[in-house]
Amino acid sequence: MNRIQIKNIKIGEGPPKVIVPLMGKNEIELMEEVKEVIILKPDIVEWRADVFDSVENLEVIKGILSLLREQLSEIPILFTFRSHREGGNKQVTDLYYHELLSTAIQSNLIDLIDIELFSQEENLKDLMQKAKDNNVYVIMSNHDFEKTPAKDEIIKRLRSMQDLGADIPKIAVMPTNISDVLTLLEATDIMRSNYADRPIITMAMGSLGVISRIGGEVFGSAATFGIGKQASAPGQIAVDDLRDVLNIIHKAQ
Ligand SMILES: O=C1C[C@@](O)(C(=O)O)C[C@@H](O)[C@@H]1O
């Protein structure tokens, strides 16, 4: 498997990397939040820009990115705009999604970008190319907040992300029972056994899915999202608790 090294962080080696989302709505909230989050020593910080009030102002976005870069110094930054149809907070046009992500990629201030698999095809290809040209790693993502797709469908989506050149394919699903959680974990394990040329990230959301957020090293998921100040999805747990469990599992490997 090809590991991905970003600054000092090796994704795909050792325990899953802990990604902490920033959920502030404005500059003041974000700057307070980032200070609290740094104390937790996250491996990667995700800025959930869809929660940010001024996400439609590209100049403000660039300004916030440079403040975050300054504060986070060597901690890798993941830029995410989660679209409304995938459980995010704001609806924007395909055109603006493309413009926003292009701005983030070309800012020279981020390390990773989240690009949704089900984005408009030409935009997606263009964003992939821009990311490559600017040395920004792509986490390609898909979310189902309603249900858990069948195992083959989960694998198919992760494989198509690989085919599209994603550095790290990612899928989040909502289980309605324990079989759904097992479906997600089995799909993750099959990816590792049969198609493990790069790290992937998977999770089952909600309380039923917690095992998937702590068991990545066992089942084959290379990173996990934990709560800093505020959760960004159901079922996330606090970073300190998360680290304790990840370390316990790691020691047993
Ligand atoms: O895609 C993901 C995964 C996530 O939805 C989760 O379930 O932990 C949390 C989001 O912030 C992130 O962008």
Automatic annotation (TrEMBL):
The cross-references to NCBIfam families, in alphabetical order and at most eight, read: aroD
Q: What is this protein called?
A: 3-dehydroquinate dehydratase
Q: Which Pfam families match?
A: DHquinase_I
The superkingdom of the source organism is Bacteria
Q: Which reaction does it catalyse?
A: 3-dehydroquinate = 3-dehydroshikimate + H2O
**PROSITE patterns hit by this protein:** DEHYDROQUINASE_I
* Quaternary structure and partners: Homodimer.
Protein's pathway? Metabolic intermediate biosynthesis; chorismate biosynthesis; chorismate from D-erythrose 4-phosphate and phosphoenolpyruvate: step 3/7
| GO BP term (any one) | amino acid biosynthetic process
Role description: Involved in the third step of the chorismate pathway, which leads to the biosynthesis of aromatic amino acids. Catalyzes the cis-dehydration of 3-dehydroquinate (DHQ) and introduces the first double bond of the aromatic ring to yield 3-dehydroshikimate.
Entry's SUPFAM superfamilies? Aldolase
Its top-level enzyme class, in one word, is lyase
What family is this? Belongs to the type-I 3-dehydroquinase family.
Binding locations of 3-dehydroquinate: E46, W47, R48, R82, R213, S232, Q236
Which keywords describe this protein according to UniProt?
A: Amino-acid biosynthesis, Aromatic amino acid biosynthesis, Lyase, Schiff base
Cross-referenced InterPro entries, in alphabetical order? 3-dehydroquinate_DH_AS, Aldolase_TIM, DHquinase_I, Type-I_3-dehydroquinase
EC nos: 4.2.1.10
Which residues carry out catalysis? Answer: H143 (proton donor/acceptor), K170 (schiff-base intermediate with substrate)
- Which molecular function GO terms apply here? 3-dehydroquinate dehydratase activity
